[in-house]
Design brief:
The complex is a heterodimer. In chain A, 28% of the residues lie in helices and 28% in strands. By secondary structure, chain A is α/β, with parallel strands linked by helices. Chain A has an eight-stranded mixed β-sheet, with helices on both faces. A seven-stranded mixed β-sheet of chain A has the order 6-5-3-4-7-8-18. In chain A, α3 packs across α4. Chain A is globular. By secondary structure, chain B is mostly helical. Chain B is 55% helix and 0% strand. Chain B contains four helices and no strands. In chain B, α1 crosses α2. The chains are: A alpha/beta, B mainly alpha.
Chain lengths: 451, 77
């Protein structure tokens, strides 16, 4: 069944599906968009589409309208630059790029969302419904994006099971281009609930006011966003029944603080990844997850631990694989290696960070190698080792240990100079917040610095 | 303690290429002071480095300060 059919209850109820500060979207609006796209398809062969850097509302409308209409849709967020976007489209035989109009893509067939709306109307041929391959991007270990391929089934099969969810109005902080945002979008619209998005809101305050005005009672956000929410007086405006957290490691402090601010809300933290799909959720109010999740046949997923202490997971919501030549981290039994290190303490499992050392600063990924190479380009730095330090605000921050070539400056002055040097070459969240000058850095058996 | 917090507050502003919005007063709302969440993360980390104290890790009940006075009080308690 295509996504538009799954949500047709909304047409009967005549309730908006999506709401932003500027507009409301109804079922009929999405139907119009689908008919416009159909008219375009009559004129030219369109099998593979890329949606590039559109706002929440337009992206969400296209996701619903295009399901079962084309073979492949790749969602490319705006933080991917035009050159990379261009290469992705060429490499993956994209027939059409739909974008906002602010870019130029040479030698590619493209259309702006406004031009799409200028098309005629054409009813889709119901018999020719196909299973669309939905492709989401993830930044890989080397910083090059990976294209993860899902079907509407893998994206929605856990959603349908949780239709026992109470009805409500969802508030979304995540972009629909990322897996977490896609999940919230599908969860809310398939269960017939309105989704309020923060598009056109200029600040957190603005978003919270919009959520309060629209009577949002379910909100999904990262722990870092939740900490920011609790640091504003507008936290009190919201009356929440369901709170979900995801995208970063959830600590006990944020769970306790949310429980205190919103005592009647059900707190759910979700473990998901673009590759592993929606994974599992925990709603007992504690960080980590119960050890009882291992080898439990009652649950719709199977989890295990690899020899490197990373979490292995197998479920019907996992991705089909990567597009292109990248090898998918799946073993012969169907388990995906998530790369997330876990430690078992007592009757619970806790997440300890990424096996490849990558650091999650408030939802933004930092690769230590990139920061180390900038540090090493400084004429006074002989050795550099970059690692994560736990942080109560952003979950983690970047720290560095340095070995310095003899110098006249004091350590304090030297650190100041190196920080300024990094700031000119790296985004602020990648610059080590703490630096320590030490005499030597250990090297392991493979010749790499020990982090 | 308050003087150290103010000094490191300005350092964190510099670290995130931000500028203070208005004057830093007791009632200034932290997230409206010009410092973003990364800036706060850096401030808390630098305070721990200088004083050895991370009050957020020690608090049993999760508390997130709203104003500058709330923030200073957490470090003074």
């Amino acid at each position: 069944m295509c996504l538009l059919q799954m949500i047709k209850q909304a047409a009967i109820d005549n309730k908006p599906i999506l709401v932003s500060k500027e507009s409301s979207v109804y079922f009929s609006d999405i139907l119009v968009l689908q008919h416009k796209f159909c008219a375009l398809q009559k004129k030219k062969q369109v099998a593979c589409v890329a949606i590039y850097d559109l706002g929440y509302i337009n992206t969400a409308k296209l996701i619903v309208a295009l399901d079962s209409m084309v073979e492949t849709v790749i969602l490319i967020p705006g933080d991917v630059n035009e050159t990379v976007c261009h290469k992705l489209c060429v490499d993956n035989n994209i027939d059409l790029v739909i974008h906002s109009g602010s870019i130029k893509l040479h030698h590619l067939v493209d259309i702006t969302i406004e031009q799409l709306y200028q098309q005629d109307d054409e009813e889709p041929d119901k018999k020719s419904s196909i299973e669309t391959c939905w492709v989401l991007m993830t930044s890989g270990t080397t910083g090059s994006p990976k294209l993860v391929s899902h079907t509407m089934y893998s994206l929605t099969n856990t959603v349908k099971k949780s239709s026992k969810f109470p009805s409500g109005i969802w508030g979304l902080f995540y972009s629909p281009y990322r897996f977490a945002g896609m999940q919230v979008l599908l969860q809310s619209i398939i269960t017939g609930n309105e989704l309020v998005v923060s598009e056109y809101c200029n600040s957190l305050k603005d978003t919270l006011k919009l959520f309060a005005d629209k009577h949002v009672n379910f909100v999904s956000a990262t722990p870092t966003i939740w900490r920011k929410v609790l640091m504003t007086e507008y936290a009190e405006l919201l009356s929440l029944d369901v709170i979900t957290l995801g995208g970063e490691i959830v600590d006990q402090n944020i769970l306790n603080a949310l429980k205190k601010q919103y005592p009647k809300a059900r707190l759910i933290h979700i473990y998901a990844s673009t590759e592993a799909g929606s994974g599992f959720s925990v709603s007992d109010g504690f960080s980590g997850f119960p050890k009882a999740y291992f080898n439990n046949e009652q649950l719709p997923f199977n989890i295990d631990i690899s020899s490197q202490s990373t979490l292995l997971i197998k479920s019907s919501s996992q991705a089909k694989g990567y597009l292109g030549n990248s090898s998918f981290p799946i073993d012969e039994n169907g388990y995906i290696d998530t790369g997330d290190v876990i430690e078992l303490i007592g009757d619970r499992g806790f997440f300890k960070g990424r096996e490849n050392g990558s650091i999650n600063v408030g939802g933004l990924k930092v690769h230590p190698e990139e920061v180390e190479s900038v540090l090493l380009s400084h004429p006074k730095v002989k050795l550099a080792s970059v690692s994560a330090k736990k942080n109560p605000i952003t979950g983690a921050i970047v720290t560095a240990q340095l070995v310095i070539i003899s110098q006249e400056l004091s350590n304090k002055e030297m650190i100041k100079e190196i920080k300024a040097y990094c700031r000119e070459r790296l985004e602020a969240y990648k610059v080590p917040a703490l630096m320590k000058i030490i005499d030597d850095i250990s090297i392991n058996s493979t010749g790499k610095t020990v982090r | 303690m308050k003087d150290l917090i103010i000094e490191l507050f300005h350092e964190a502003l510099e670290s995130t290429n931000s500028e203070i919005l208005g004057e830093l007063k007791e009632e200034t709302v932290l997230l409206e002071s010009g410092l973003d969440s990364l800036g706060f993360a850096i401030l808390v980390a630098r305070l721990e480095e200088e004083t050895g104290i991370d009050p957020f890790a020690e608090l049993e009940e999760g508390v997130y300060p709203k104003t500058f006075a709330d923030f200073v009080a957490i470090y003074q308690s």
